[in-house]
Here is the input.
Amino acid sequence: MENISLGDFKSKFRTNKKFKIITLVIGGLIVTSITYFLYRQFIFLPKNEKSKESYVRPLNDITNASKQTNKDIKLKEINKAIKLLESSVKLYDGYIGGEISQYLLGRQYMEKKEFQKAIKNLEGVDMEDTYIRIYSIGLQGDCYSELKKYDTAIEKYLEAADLEENEFTTPMYLLKAGLCAEKRKDYVAATTYYTRILDDYPAYGSQKTIEKYISRTSTIKKK
Here is the structure.
């Protein structure tokens, strides 16, 4: 490689346009990489770790609420959790703790049957964790089903089912899609979803006696 003195470098930088552009581009990439490294190492990672503490207290309130038989006390615990979770989402949006808080917040709005608020929060969950992503989408399906928006519910259930195929969530959401299809009186679609469970997930299908569902919908569709 040619040895270039500082003086030669400065001269070439001034007179050679192509060399100048390449130097500026490489320099910009180096500065960007260093800046990103420093940000991630000294700002993002520490705050990300701290964010994980933010949902501990509301999670305790959620646990307490689940144990309550008194509706008023249960609602009080849920509202306490919601208030803390909203603060966590606002403070740690984009960090693990904030995303988990937003997922939990959506679930608590579902408990209060405030399904539009639940959908808004569940849509905002952005995590690499596969199962939280699946459940966030599937719970949106539950919300739309409760709102009797069965077409959208089916879309969400199928999206959740196909996001990462596995022996548990995929057949679970296919079953829910089938039940919504039945409510729409779309028995052909329902039969299709149930049959996929029987063919691809026989263990789950056997547990849920899926043949009964298929028998019911296939008989109706022939009428």
